[in-house]
Structures are given as structure tokens and as C-alpha cells.
Amino acid sequence: MLSAYLYRVRKSLLKRPLKFVLLLLAVAMSVFMIFFPTLMADSEDAVVRNPNLVLGGISLVLMLMFDFMFYSGVKNGVVGFSNSDVNFHLAGPFTEKFNLIILVEGVITTCAMLLWVLSCQVAVLYSIFGVNSVDVLALLVGGLFSMLLSYLVASFLGAKFAEEEGVKNKILIGLLAVNLVLIGGFLLSMVKRYGSFGAVTSLGIKNIIADFGSSIFSQCFPVAGWLSLIYGGIVKNSLVYLLVGIALIVLFIVFICALYANVDLDYYETAIANAQKVADIIEARKAGVDTDTANMNKKIKVGKESLKSGWGASAFTYMHFLQNARASKFFFVNSLALLYRFITAVYMFMMKGTYEDDKMMALIMGLMMISLLNVVIYGGGKTVLEFNKPFIFMVPESGPKKLFACLMADLPEMTFDSILATAIFWFILKPGPLALGGLFVFIMVFDCLCELTALVMMRLFRGLGRFLLMFVRYILIYAFFFIAMIPAIVVYYIVGSLAALIGAGALGGIVMIAIMLLCSANIVDRVEFEK
Amino acid sequence: MLVVNGVTKKYKKFLANDNLSFTIGDGEIGVLLGPNGAGKSTIIKSIAGLLRYEGDIEICGEDNHTIEAKRLLGYVPEMPALYDTLTIDEHLEFIRRAYKVEDTSIKEKLLERFELTDKRKKMGKELSKGMQQKVSICCALLHDPKVVIFDEPMVGLDPHAIKELKALFQELKAQGKTVLISTHMIDTIEDYWDVAHIMMNGRIAATKHNRADSSDEKSLDELFFQITEGKSSDEAKKEE
Predict the structure, then answer these.
(1) B157: closest CA among B141, B135, B140?
(2) pLDDT in tens, B195-208
(3) What angle do CA A452, A290, A312 make, to 5 degrees?
(4) How confident is the model at residue A294 (pLDDT cuts 50, 70, 90)?
């Protein structure tokens, strides 16, 4: 399988030189980022490395990766088979377990993308934790293991209980419970040690993370904790840590093998039912949209909602509203955005600790993180999927009008997300009311910018594939953010107010939205229907 | 009326349609015949305005990319592409609103005609391929288009629906509408066609009109196999 996969990748790259160049650029960027701490070591701004803090940070990131993959694996264990997989693999002379393992191919791409995004954050990790190049390498290798091992178990459980949504939910509640027990246990032990909760919080987030990294609670966390144990053994020259960590990981791999060898699976029916949806997702991913696959298995039923509004192009808006309302009572909540806002909150806490005396810097770093995460969340949404159906091309209205009508349907999600993100800023940095208003506008503006960038990229580089399209979008949003920040920082130094800084940044974003709108206006008339 | 004039479509180096020109008049049924890969679906999609191409396509005198032309055109795609979580009823309601059709009774008539009334609350993802195809046909006809193009319309349909569809072709013709059908199944088009274009390698290799005074000419079957298989024998000779 691996040689076949590598053969396909090699052939595909050779046929697309631009893709090859961009892939090289992405790898080069990652390599540069890995060596970034080494380059910074001799500079005046060098950050002193605290090994415990580094271990704590690595443990936390690996735990997040484990949780993310476990959730995804349980929910989508048998989602991922394409129609051709159904015809050639499921109907072919292969066992159900072997066929389940072929899905790992798709997961490796997801892992590669997540690790690349992580490697782009090395500068931030350096400023917070003082990581060195070996730490970064350990984080990336550990991340890969954490995600793969997590996925292998979770996808097996997802396949075993493919038709039993209740059991799958209980498994996920179990995962949540493990997280709560270990983190809760750690906090309780801290309270016991320092006397009160107030005394613990007064230590600051960095000291708490440093304590967590070397605590038994983080080391007990499945896979992620054991991997940290191995690295802790290397860093602290502790053979016991190293051997215990390796033994636990080996045991876990043996457990996975035993699971695959001894437990029967029967998931083909569910896999076949999902194959067409996978075809849609693959189409969307070609356009660089990472649709929320976690919702794919959701049992959607027809309720009282109906299509009562919309005329001409606006029928698209209301039709999307109807689909969203049918998929969830909380139609304005994007579950992926919720997860990312949690990451944002953790990040903001760290930024607050890092830039204690510089609220502006903490705020800019937070806004940058939100903008970059939203590249994944607001990647065109249902609008991109419309290009897989003929209706958007056929309906007798002007192209820009139809496009705008589709984009309008994403506004409730963006509004809720902006309110949530603003609330996080309020909770952590306590900016004034004017600045809060500015933050809301800024986040909305950048959400729209992410959406429009995704559409323009789809028009220009559709053939690049998921990973590289995401790479290009990521770079562009980085560029947009810095362009918006130039006038914002100038204004801040003249006026001296955070509200002015955010307002000027938002204005810069609005100008870029206007440019992107101009670029994407005729996209409906220029993009080809490929089905 | 549908006019296709000098249409060329390339996918990188591959020439899918090579300078195609044909006209289907009002009240006429045109058929595009050809083996797989002949370029039938490409020209159908180009007519529907889904692809970029060189050349001109007019729907009742309007360029096919104009809003007016879109209003006059109905398109039944080869692969029905419905919204997973919209019901049949909602698909038709969406099309009615998007095309600004005031009359709600057309929707009911179409549902009844294609035996979809009792399944109107079923979502797109719950439908079989044939049912999805029926919904696609209803969506294409709901706004009473003047020109209707069908890409392999019979694939996946049950015998009743095929019978109904053939009757529909005749009705559309009687109403003076222009109908273009693409198919590779020569035996499904029987005798209701007016003009047949046989496509091969992106070009129209032959055109045959269905006229009462053409009984001495080769039948459509004979012409089709002469063109498609003739090429194979030529190639075989070259290889020798």
C-alpha cells in the first residue's frame, strides 16, 4: 500500500511542476521553522529555555492532537471510502480490517497538514516556551505518533459501532472524562500542594504548564503522555522515564494489533452509504475546503423547517439557511470553530503571560492566531460545494449576485464566532468597550476575507489539491494580516489607543475585502462545472 | 431554437469538441449519438454554460451566458446532483423561487407525473439514482423552458419513467420546444427524433434527418455502426 501510495504521489508531482515547487516551499518553510530557535539562540532576543515548561507545552499539544484524532476517528471511522474504494477494495479480496487500515492514507495527509501548520507556529512556541530545534523535532515526530495511534484505535471503534450512535457518543464522553479526570486531578493536587486555588492561579499559566509536564497526571494520558515521558527521559537523562514510555507505547501498539486481529467488524453498509458524501468532500477538498467531516454521520431528519423565503438569487441564501437549520438546532454554531476558539483561549492565556506589560502585542498575536485558524474554518463553506452542482451556473441571475447570496448564508456562523472570539478577548485582556466593538468588526472582516480568499484561490489554483491550496491561502492570510497591521500600528503610536489600532486594522481588512470581492465577483461565470 | 456555431473545447491538450456546428429548430428533437468519450457531454455542458469554450452558442437568439438565455434553458445533467438534506419538495420549491416562477401548480403536476408525490418529503440523500434523475428532470422543466437539453436521460430510470420521458419528449415537441438529447444507447431513441448527429472524436461524423422520403438511405443504426466500427477497421488496417 505504502509503495503504491508513494508511486502515485511521485507520478502526480512529476506531472504538476508548480505543485512540486509549492510542496518544496512548504517543506523548506517547515525546515526553516525547525531551525528558527537555533538561529535565535545567539540573538539579543533569545528566550531562556525552561525544560519543564517545554515538556508541559509538548504534553499539552500532543494531548490536543490525540483528542482531535480520537474524536475524528470515532465519528468518521468508516467515512473516507470513495466510490472506487467501494468497488475495488470493499468488493475485492481484502478483509474488513485491512480495508479499514487503508483509510490511514487519508489521515496521513491530514496529519502532515496539521504538523505543517504547527511548524509554522514555532516562532510563537519559541517566544512562549523557549523551545529549541530538538524540541520542535520531538513535537513534530511525537505529534505524528500521537495522531496515528489515536486514529487507529478510534477508527476501529468507529467501525465497530458504525450504526450505534449512542455507543459512539459514550466512547467520546469517556474520552472527555479521561481529560477531565487527569486535568482535574492535576489541579486538585496543585491546590493541595499550594493551599488554595488562588495560590495556584497566582503562579501564572507558565508555571502551571511546567508543573503539569512533569506530573503523573500528564504522564498517564494515553499515548500523548507516554510520548512526553520518552522525550522527558531524553531531556532529563532519565533511563526509567525513557524505558517506561517506550514500554507503554509498545504495549499500546500490541493492543492495537490484538484488537485488529481478534475483533470482527461489519461496517461495509455504513461505508457504502457514506461513499457519495466522501465524493463531495473530496471535491470540496480539491478546492481546499476542509468540510466538517464530523457531521457526516449525523442522522438528519426532516422537521418543521421549510423554504418560505427567497426569490431569484436570494433563494440560495434561504436554501442554505434551511440546510443549516436542518443539520443543527444551533445552526449558527460551527463545531470546528468552537474547537478552534478553545485553542485560541488557551493561546491567549499564554500570550497574556508572555507579554504581561504589552497588551497591544498580546492582542495582535491573538488576532493573528484567530485569523490563521479561520483559514481552515472559513474556507468557502457551502458556497464552494455549490460549484459541484449545476444550479449556481443555471439559475438566471447575475453571477456576482448568486455568489453574494451564497456567502450571505454564512453570516450567522461568522457573527456568532466573532462574538465568541470577542468574549475571549474580553475575558483575558479586558479591553475597553470601544476596543471590543473594534475586535468584533475586525474578526468579522477577517472571516469574510478568509472566505473570499478561498473562493479566489479555487478559481486560480483549483488543480493544486487540498494541501497546497491550504498552504497558499495560509500564506495569503498571513500577508493580509501584516498589511492590515501596518496602518494599525502607525495609528496606535499616533493615537495611543487599542480601539484605534483595531479600528485601523479592520479598515485595512475592509479595503482588502473590496479587492477580493472584485477578484471573485465573476467567479461563477469563470469557474467550470467539473462533475 | 438552439444554434451551436464553431464550438471548440480543449482540456489542456485534449480536444474534446472540435469546431462543432449544428442547429435544432423550434419543435424539433435533436439527438447527439456517439460512443463513450465522443464529446457529447462536453458539448451539452457547454450549451448549459457550465464550461468555457471557443465559439458561439445561442438559445432562442440569445448568447447562452446571458440571464435571458438561462431563463429559456432547462438542463438535465448526466449525474443528478441534488442537495443531501433538502427534500424533493424543497428542491422544486428552491428552483421555483430561484427562477421566479409564480405558478405553484406546475410543481404539483410534475411531482404527480413522475410519481414523486408520495415521496416528496424524502431527502436527496435517501433517493436512489433513478429517483434523483426524476427530480433532476422535474427541476429542469419547472420553469417551462423553451429549450431543454438532456444528458443521458434514460440511465437509471425504471420502465415507467422511461415511457413517461419518451411521452414528454413528444409533448415538448408538440409545444414547439427545442429538445436536445445526448445518448450512447441508440435503441432508446426509437423514431421520435428529427435530426441525429453522430459524434466521433469530438467531431460530428454524420448528420441524419428523420424524413419520410429518406427510406432509401441507410438507417440510423447502420450509419452509427459504419462510423464507429469503420474507424476501428481503418485503424486495424493501419496497424497491419
Answers:
(1) B135
(2) 999 999 999 999 98
(3) 50
(4) very low
Please state whether B7 falls in left (phi above 0), alpha (psi between -120 and 50) or beta: beta
CA dist., res. B6 & res. B99, Å (int): 30
Interface of B with A in 29-48 (CB under 8 A): 45, 48
CB-based contact, B121 to chain A, within 8 Å:
yes
CA separation for the pair B236, B232 (Å, rounded): 6
Provide ipTM, 2 decimals.
0.85
SS3 A130: coil
Q: How far apart are CA A484 and CA A505, in angstroms?
A: 5
Residue B26 grid cell: 423550434
- DSSP code, position B154: T
Q: B94–A319: do the CB atoms touch at under 8 Å?
A: yes
Measure Cα distances from A158 to A94, A155, A168, A274, A277 in Å: 19, 5, 7, 13, 17
Q: How far apart are CA A232 and CA A303, in angstroms?
A: 53
Mean pLDDT, range A57-74, rounded to an integer: 89
Q: What is the pLDDT of residue B237?
A: 43
Cα(B47)–Cα(B65) distance, integer angstroms: 9
A382, closest residue in chain B (CA to CA): B83
Q: Tell me if A277 and B125 make a contact (CB, 8 A cut-off).
A: yes
Quick one: which of B149, B200, B202, B187 has its CA closest to B29? B149
Helix-then-strand count for chain A, H and E = 26, 0
Residue B9 belongs to what H/E stretch? strand B2-11
CB B206 within 8 A of CB B195: no
Q: Among B65, B81, B93, whose Cβ lies nearest the Cβ of A389?
A: B81
Q: Give me the residues of A, 21-50, that contact B with CB < 8 A.
A: none
Q: Look at A50-54, A461-465, B35-39, B163-167 and tell me which has the smallest mean pLDDT.
A: A461-465
Are the CB atoms for B224 and B39 separated by under 8 Å? no
Name every chain B residue with its beta carbon within 8 A of the beta carbon of A327.
85
Say if the Cβ atoms of A300 and B90 lie within 8 Å: no
Strand partners, B87: B123
> pTM of whole model > 0.90?
no
